[in-house]
UniProtKB/TrEMBL annotation:
Transmembrane segments: 462-485
Matching PANTHER family: GPI TRANSAMIDASE COMPONENT PIG-T, GPI TRANSAMIDASE COMPONENT PIG-T-RELATED
Residue ranges the record marks as coiled coil: none
Signal sequence range: 1-19
Organism: Metarhizium anisopliae BRIP 53293
Any single Pfam family the record assigns to this protein: Gpi16
Gene Ontology annotations for the cellular component aspect, listed alphabetically: GPI-anchor transamidase complex
Keywords linked to the UniProt accession: Membrane, Signal, Transmembrane, Transmembrane helix
Domain of life: Eukaryota
Protein name: GPI transamidase component
Any one biological process term the GO annotation gives: attachment of GPI anchor to protein
């Protein structure tokens, strides 16, 4: 169980047999309309190279810069993910690619590397993070032992005969607002549609002739590729496999779709997807016209029904104050089968959790006889060391069908040195998302949202205030004391008369003139 979940794993991997497999390249764009004028655009780029070419430094499709880093750091498998935003599973359904391509908010780096000792693995990890930091122009060099937690997957794949290829896969999943994409570039401010184009939701109790609540099920379900991406698609990559359709659209067969001339449409047997082959060196246009459905029931048939995920997960902070706090994870199983999964949290060292407060509570269940204490099957806990490593909490859990479980624990906030605070200390500290990997009935990955932890923040202006106050006090005290010590008071009657000075000056000048005359 642990080799699949530990962010950094040091292990010996058997040598891979060399193969003379030819390198190939595939690219795919998958479009899936989502409810409420959203559109999922998933870009997938995959290239395969033989291990023999990689070891001979014969780089054709695989990037040389990345290959040299992997070889020097002894890395066998690498997952580097840059993530922004969150996936709304309740509205959009299961995650793309079963969550295997996604990461937590921010940067997430996983690596499996060859190492005989833990010390060697740490050295290889440091080498890998520093090299990737320069290659991707990111602050990956800050992922040290205290923070051990784009989408690029590099892993060796071998068949039954022992022939292996090195596969590099890059996936970019983005959810776009269709209505915002269709706005003019010079006027991005949204404008209400004309009155005759308004489609009202008649199910609202306040619907009337002079009241109209827009029906969201029909909003933003018509678009073209040039409207979404700002330009048409100009052919395919010459290196890509011509047998693989580069564009797929996930809409029912009943939906009308227009494609440019010269392209061929290939419909899936399920009736919920279609792919298009694009002629080389020619523009490809794809038009999804507005649906003619007038009711929510009819409009629902124009979209592919979202797949219900195995698990819903939420996480938040509880408690108040600057000394203690708590974490609450809400895990919901909406299916009729039991779900087994692994829950992993990598916490910073300044979150000192109380393991004895770890508890589970069942809110609602179809099996009321289930005991909440039996939900956690195994626990792997590695405590934190101050300023050396973070806390790792790994739980093997089983949730009954139709059940919501609350997982809670308390923690203590450590006191940091003033030099350990970032420049934006009042913003808080980011806590990495929890990683959940379902084991039964099928393997899927999901992440919770990241958290923002507030720690007691010192007054960083205090040293400057003290310096200014002390300098002012010293200046005032030193000035007065120096004036008293150096200044000499003389009476008016003790001062020599100006006339006497004038007579003495004249007398000296006469003596000087006489001396000059005798010479």
């Amino acid at each position: 169980m642990r080799p699949c979940l530990t962010p950094l794993l040091a292990s010996l991997v058997p040598g891979l047999a060399a193969a003379a497999a030819a390198a190939d390249y595939h690219e795919l764009l998958t479009l899936r309309p989502l409810p409420f004028s959203q559109l999922l655009a998933s870009f997938n780029f995959k290239s395969n190279s033989s291990i023999a070419d990689f070891e001979a430094h014969n780089f054709r499709l695989f990037p040389r810069s990345l290959g040299q880093i992997l070889e020097y750091a002894g890395t066998r498998e690498l997952h580097l993910r840059f993530t922004l935003g969150r996936w709304d599973a309740e509205t959009w359904g299961a995650r793309p690619w079963d969550g295997t391509k996604e990461g937590g908010t921010g940067v997430e780096l996983w690596a499996w590397m060859d190492a005989e000792t833990d010390q060697q693995a740490d050295e290889n990890w440091l080498t890998l993070t520093n090299a990737l930091s320069g290659l991707f122009c990111a602050s990956l060099n800050f992922i040290d032992g205290t923070r051990t937690s784009m989408a690029i997957d590099v892993k060796p794949i071998c068949d039954q005969s022992g022939d292996c290829v090195l596969q590099m896969e890059q996936t970019i999943d983005m959810v776009m607002d269709v209505n915002r994409s269709k706005r003019p570039r010079d006027n991005p401010i949204p404008r209400p549609p004309p009155t005759h184009e308004l489609v009202c939701d008649t199910s609202k109790s306040y619907h009337d002739d002079d009241h109209c609540f827009p029906a969201d099920h029909l909003n933003g379900q018509d678009w073209t590729l040039s409207q979404i991406f700002g330009r048409p698609m100009k052919g395919t990559c010459p290196l890509a496999d011509a047998q693989v359709p580069p564009v797929c659209l996930q809409v029912p067969d009943s939906r009308v779709v227009y494609a440019s001339e010269g392209s061929a449409e290939i419909k899936d047997e399920s009736g919920m997807s279609r792919c298009y082959t694009i002629p080389p060196q020619s523009e490809f246009a794809l038009v999804l016209p507005k649906s003619e459905a007038k009711t929510p029931e009819a409009a629902a048939k124009e979209l592919v029904e979202p797949v219900q995920p195995l698990l819903y997960a939420e996480r938040s902070f509880t408690g108040h104050g600057q000394e203690h706090g708590g974490v609450q994870a809400i895990l919901t199983n909406p299916n009729n089968v039991e779900v087994e999964f692994v829950y992993l949290e990598s916490l910073p060292w300044f979150m000192r959790i109380y393991l004895h407060t770890l508890s589970t509570r069942i809110s609602s269940s179809a099996a009321p006889t289930t005991n909440s204490s039996e939900l956690i099957k195994q626990i792997h806990y590695r405590p934190a060391l101050d300023r050396s490593r973070g806390t790792q909490l790994e739980l093997l859990m089983r949730i009954p069908p139709r059940c919501t479980v609350f997982l809670t624990y308390d923690f203590e906030k450590a006191i940091l040195r003033y030099t350990e605070y970032p420049p934006d200390a009042n913003r808080g500290f980011d806590v990495a998302a929890a990683v959940i990997r379902t084991l039964e009935p099928q393997v899927m990955n999901l992440r919770t949202t990241s958290l923002l932890l507030y720690l007691p923040t010192p007054d960083f202006s205090m040293p400057y205030n003290v310096i200014i106050f002390t300098s002012t006090a010293i200046a005032l005290a030193f000035g007065g004391l120096y004036n008293i010590l150096v200044r000499r008071l003389v009476g008016a009657d003790e001062v020599a008369s100006p006339m006497a000075k004038w007579k003495l000056r004249n007398l000296l000048s006469k003596f000087q003139k006489r001396g000059i005359g005798r010479q």
